[in-house]
Amino acid sequence: MSTLENISCNRAFGGWHKRYRHTSSTTGTEMVFAIYLPPQASGSRKVPVLYWLSGLTCTDENFMQKAGAQRMAAELGIAIVAPDTSPRGEEVANDEGYDLGQGAGFYVNSTQAPWQSHYQMYDYITKELPELVEANFPVNDKRSIAGHSMGGHGALISALKNPGRYLSASAFSPIVNPTQVPWGQKAFAAYLGDDVEAWKAYDSCELIAAADANDRTPMLVSQGLSDEFLAEQLTPQRLKQAARDNGYPLVLEQHEGYDHSYYFIASFIEQHLKFHANFLV
Ligand SMILES: N[C@@H](CCC(=O)N[C@@H](CSC=O)C(=O)NCC(=O)O)C(=O)O
């Protein structure tokens, strides 16, 4: 297991916001993540963890600086872990577009050159990172997962592919059907190759349709109705329909006037944290 190097440490709402760098055996690069530890984590008690996956162009910092999640996390006694959205570095493959390469890992394990040597984000966020966090911080093994846009896709597929690993999942403005929309098709063609059957393993509509009746993770999805990416990239109704057809416990909430930005996330993050607290605390 890799050693953690502390990058920064800030007091927030009686707890601590900390950033760490480590060498990841999964991505073969240095990775940075942030953790918010609520005040409850300073005693002998261990606290549960919400993993947050960010969207295209983000690092570990966007959510921690813009969502305003720390106040409610402190009140509820929930730690939050926010990883980066891809491996990074001069030796890491990249693309000129904002929607492929560094900052756009799509939370899949790449099988294609030149991406596969470092772009193993699915294993990083579902395996290596939780093991590292649970070994080094005062947290227990109660986990939930949430995210935004590309990160909403990451959160939903991580929960659907690992029944029982996450006690709940939620997403803001997620890319629910990446095999059928331009962002997902571009990234999956690059990272996973031409076999579209292989793409389905990372598509939440496909996964929710195939989910076993005994494998259910409570899910909340929030979508702004003035989101500039709603019709072309996000298509939440497809997930709602697939969930309904398979009797899956998914709640889709739609909010008039809200767009794709962190203003939307900041407006409803308290609701999402309280949703997760029902299962974590
Ligand atoms: N053209 C934009 C696209 C980038 C963008 O909107 N990124 C979103 C996530 S989109 C889906 O994954 C985001 O969270 N941005 C960071 C932020 O802090 O708002 C662009 O490159 O500007």
Report on the architecture of this protein.
It comes from Ferrimonas aestuarii. Keywords: Hydrolase, Serine esterase. GO terms for molecular function: carboxylic ester hydrolase activity; S-formylglutathione hydrolase activity. The chain is an alpha/beta fold and 281 residues long. It has a single domain, classed as Rossmann fold (3-Layer(aba) Sandwich). Helices cover 35% and strands 22% of the residues. It has ten helices and nine strands. The protein has helices spanning 61-66, 70-76, 121-136, 150-161, 182-192, 196-199, 204-210, 230-234, 236-245, 262-280, and strands at residues 5-12, 15-23, 30-37, 47-53, 79-83, 139-148, 169-172, 219-224, 250-255. The protein has a nine-stranded mixed beta sheet, sandwiched between helices. The mean pLDDT is 98. Bound molecules: ligand LAXINWYW. Residues 55-58, 62, 66, 98, 148-150, 260-262 line the site of the ligand N[C@@H](CCC(=O)N[C@@H](CSC=O)C(=O)NCC(=O)O)C(=O)O.
String of helices and strands:
EEEEHHEHEHEHHHEHHEH
Flag low-confidence runs.
none
Mean pLDDT: 98
The tally of helices reads: 10
> Which class in CATH terms?
Alpha Beta
Q: Which range does the strand content fall in?
A: 15-25%
Query: Measured on Cα atoms, how large is the radius of gyration?
Result: 17 Å
What is the domain total for the residues? 1
- The side-by-side strand order for the widest beta sheet comes to 1-2-3-5-4-6-7-8-9
Biggest β-sheet strands, sense, barrel: 9 strands, mixed
Q: What is the CATH-assigned architecture? A: 3-Layer(aba) Sandwich
Let me know the CATH homologous superfamily. Answer: Alpha/Beta hydrolase fold, catalytic domain
- What shape does the CA trace take? globular
Q: What are the bound molecules?
A: ligand LAXINWYW
Helix content: 25-40%
Spatial gap, N to C terminus: 28 Å
Number of DSSP-assigned strands: 9
Organism: Ferrimonas aestuarii
Enzyme class: hydrolase
Active site: 149, 227, 260
Family: Belongs to the esterase D family.
